[in-house]
UniProtKB/TrEMBL annotation:
Residues 1-27 are annotated as: Disordered. This is Helix-turn-helix domain-containing protein. InterPro entries: DNA-bd_dom_put_sf, HTH_17. Residues 45-92 form the Helix-turn-helix domain. Residues 1-10 have a biased composition (Low complexity). It comes from the Bacteria.
Length: 93
């Protein structure tokens, strides 16, 4: 796949990323089809950054100061539960 539309324009679709919206799906090998993904998917720092409208670096500063939404390390990656981020936002109001 070249990442270009039939007219030669670059495609705006990001490759290799899992959709995170309500229509997110995953491929079920046993069923041989795409199935809806549950809301249990963890968010990465980029997704939390987009959701909160702050730079990624701010999330790392907040984590260091223990003032931001609770995150957890999964291997070497920082992940957030969406419900924790939303609860943290509610606490700020």
């Amino acid at each position: 796949m070249t990442g270009r539309t039939p007219s030669g324009q670059r495609s705006s679709r990001r490759q290799g990323r899992t959709p995170s919206g309500p229509a997110a799906t995953a491929y079920d090998i046993e069923k041989g089809e795409h199935v809806p993904v549950s809301g249990d998917r963890l968010w990465g720092v980029e997704e939390v950054s987009d959701f909160l409208g702050v730079p990624v670096s701010t999330l790392y500063v907040w984590r260091h100061r223990r003032i931001g939404p609770q995150g957890r390390k999964i291997g070497r990656h920082l992940r957030y539960r969406p419900q924790d981020v939303r609860a943290w936002v509610e606490e700020q109001e």
